[in-house]
Task: structure prediction
Amino acid sequence: MGTVSTNEFRKRLKIMLDDQPCMIVENEFVKPGKGQAFNRVRLKNLITGRQLEKTFKSGDSFQEADITNTTMQFLYTDGQNYTFMDTKSFEQVEISKENMDGAEKWLLENTECDISFWGDRPISVTPPVFMELSITYTEPAVKGDTSNNVTKAATVETGAEVQIPLFIGQGDRVKIDTRTGEYVERAK
Amino acid sequence: MSLIPAHRPDPEAAAFRAISLRKVRAYFDSQRVLEVDTPALSRGISLDCHIDVFSAAFHPLGYARADRSDAAGRAYYLQTSPEPHMKRLLCHGFPDIYQIAKAFRNGEHGEKHNPEFTMLEWYRLGFSLDRMMDDVEAVCTLIAGLRPSRRRAYTEVFQTALGADPLALDLDGILALPSLRDRLPSRGAFATKTDALDFIMAHLIEPGFDPDVFTFVHGFPAEQAAQAQVYTEDPRLAHRFEVYGGGMELGNGYLELTDAKEYERRFEEENAKRRLRGKPELPKDLDLLADLRLGLPPCAGVAVGLDRLLLLGMGRKDIASVLAFPWNAC
Result:
């Protein structure tokens, strides 16, 4: 991995800061007319997910973080760890529930996820943006209430709880946005 | 290769700029200030340790050829401000003057910086710094509808923000202030006390200025005098002000130094600071120093970043949005 200077900072660039891989969320160049230049930067720690603000002298250099992304298929879980497989190399990795960071609630067997690695270490799992899932449980709709804004709770086949419109029933399939956990539309 | 237009110049911003320039010209006409036009490319350059220049070479015709790597040409610089030439005019007996000039600063690119920008610079003979601040306010309010100014002394601004007197502390004293804990970059970031004060001003104080008001801060520490006169009654302070629109720096004004020897001394000081930071030295502007020997009349001068003023006037955030072709599109 090479080094990058603040001059090359841009959104989504990944650098090492205090031995932690971080992603640049925002980068602002601040320079008084007669003063020194700095970069005011908001970063996201890719391990903890926490955001932090830092100010660097313009021109300072950083090690780039060795972050790679691989598409892997979800195989199974024992409740503690989640096992994924690279469909090209057939290599498998185990990711602890803690590191799944909520992604696990959208996974079906064979779901393809984007997994970030810092070196060899998996640090985050991103499920597909949209998942089509069956409703395994929801209360029947109350007749007469046709307002579109009213929703009801439902459980989908992966076990996640979602809010769905009243006209959707048990056994129906729905499309969910995994970034927000929100219902998008009825799926066929 | 496919060529897709990546940038659309904005006619609304262009119209706002044109109207604003008309107002500025009308104001200076009414004040009998003469519009001047001086070179953007020249041998002389304003010397400032934190301002990096674009350089260009002049070649006699026929010498700028790919097979002649020895033809270095003669070094010229794109002006970082029209100040040296405008002062030379004053030395030659010109009256009050203003200029709407392109200025160039290398490496300065961001939401509030374009490496090429428009500077509105003017000089008023015999003006006090107070009168100059009135003048700046009159010009700024032509373009941006902020409320009239608050004028604050530099030391008061610091005292209010940090609970400490910036003149009484040295660099270590400043870095140790409890009010700055966890708010400063790493210790190595500051070579001098001035660097630390500049940082505090730009990062910790300016963002807190009332967003709807023009704020003037005056009476800067003498180490930051640049080309301003030092107070005769208190040599720790200089007759320099900065004007801000909300939290954004708009310009710098001075009660201009008139003494040629002192100019030369400050140029050398800036070069010493450049050496300290591992930057190449820049030539002293010998033409300016020669003309200063004719005598610069007592005057106040100010440089205002016009694009930023337009930004305020249009209620926009990114300087690229008021330029026809910003840095990434030209």
Chain A touches chain B at residues 7, 28-38, 40, 54-58 (CB under 8 Å).
